[in-house]
Amino acid sequence: MKRIIATLLLCLLFINNVSAHYTQTCKIKYRLSNGYWSKYYRVDVKFMTGSELNIQLGGPTFSIFDKFACIFWADNKITIIKLSTTIIGELDHDSINNRLTKLEGVDEENRFWEICPSGTCF
């Protein structure tokens, strides 16, 4: 019984230390208040789980079941986009790039974002 408990504790420690974030250069744009879209920006986007985001920002603010796209701007600001597009499995090259459609989500200011991991958005 002690062995089983020790094994479960080790598994929990291992799972908590697994890193699933993935960074990739993407084309992004957001919906303006007038309903039109902004121009495309080419930026590095860091894809993270809610638990990773909570660790990085130092607090349990985001749901551990959600996935996010984070953009770190030059002026030390960050845009955190909660992805509404379903990503199955790990956040890695294949799950981000092997898609037929763009990624979509909403940031904390309720702006809609479109993220194109490949060079073309459909």
TrEMBL record:
Keywords: Signal. Residues 1-20 form the signal peptide. It comes from the Bacteria. This is GLPGLI family protein. It comes from Mucilaginibacter litoreus. The lineage of its organism: Bacteria, Pseudomonadati, Bacteroidota, Sphingobacteriia, Sphingobacteriales.
